[in-house]
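re: that chain from earlier
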Amino acid sequence: MDLLVAPKPVFNRSKEVFAYYLSFQVGNALLQEGKAYAFDNEVNTPFFDFISQIGLEALTSNKLIFIPVTNVHLAMDLEDVCSVDKSLVALLMGRKIELSEANLKRVTRFKELGFKTAFIHRNDYEALEPFFPQTDFIFNTGDTAAIPILNARIKKTFARTKVIARGINTDEAFNKAGLNGAELLQGQFYKTSAIVRDIRVSPLKVNYISLINQVSQDDFDLDKFAGIVQRDTALAIQFLKMVNSSRVRGDSITSLRHAAALLGQKEIKKWVTTAVTSTLGMESPSEVTRLSMIRARFCDNLAEMFEMVVHRDNLFLMGLFSVLNVILEMGIEQALEIVQVPEKVKTALLGGSNDFSEVYRFIQLYEEGEWTEISRIALIRNMNIREIFAAYNEALTWYGRMISMPVEGEQPE
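^ sequence. v structure.
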């Protein structure tokens, strides 16, 4: 089955990631085999295979994941195909799920097996009410005014059910949904940042930005690189550990300059753009750092499909810096004045039109689950759905390797 999948974060009121749910499309949405109903009568759900392939560490950092299921899936023994901790899996039932006695028994059984359960909000309260005691979560639409009513109906029957507000795309909407009683929230709000009046950057961040600008040069000075790294003890330790875990065993490293020479400029650039961006993002929601790194690798992987192989490095940089405004807590224009990026990358990130902006828009559409538009672009550019999914899959896998190797282990390619 040709499948497109994008995990979307669900946050708590402290803007910490609580869980992820899977937005998906089967095949090309503009072709017959890609219609919405293509998934409805499938006996097997592909999502458990997807989770097994990527791993929950890379996919959700071992947080809860919502998996879409159908009437057919509820009749299956899903526990036999679930290879991860069932308490980390919530079966998400959409509006097509029949609110029948048979399905209530199946949902109850899955709860007894350890799965969590969730429903997409629907207006037929009377039919849904018997399911409330077996329901851990209910996804509400973007209408935050309806949340208090929904909360009142649910809590009366089963107090532990949590309402998840969807379509929360601004900080204002986030605050309003929270005040209305939403305990969990999903949307694009975390990708934006208000322009603050004081755009001064902390000394520590200035050091990291200097490092990025240094290695952005075609032939940078290793002594200057080592000098910047040694200003930050944690960064120096991280660099030395990475060099030690990647090099062939031999003479001991005598200095940061020696370590830099052993690694070489190409590998140093890769390390700086990922490790430093990760460090810069520590003060932002953790999802921001995750997003920037997955975007970077996804952009890189799409280079061939967009006939931009010679620009792979800059495509990686574009994805990595696409949320720089959030990381530095300022407008994107000010952020890009501080960090030196190629003009084409800058144009794309500022909303201009060029070949880089086509890739940037594509990755945004993908992560937002805009499958019809993704399908349209795929048809126009003769892009294979399976190859698109493979490119995103690999980005998730690469991110998983990155976060699982703090000292030793497999290095990113």
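Residues 194-203, 405-413 have pLDDT under 50 and may be disordered.
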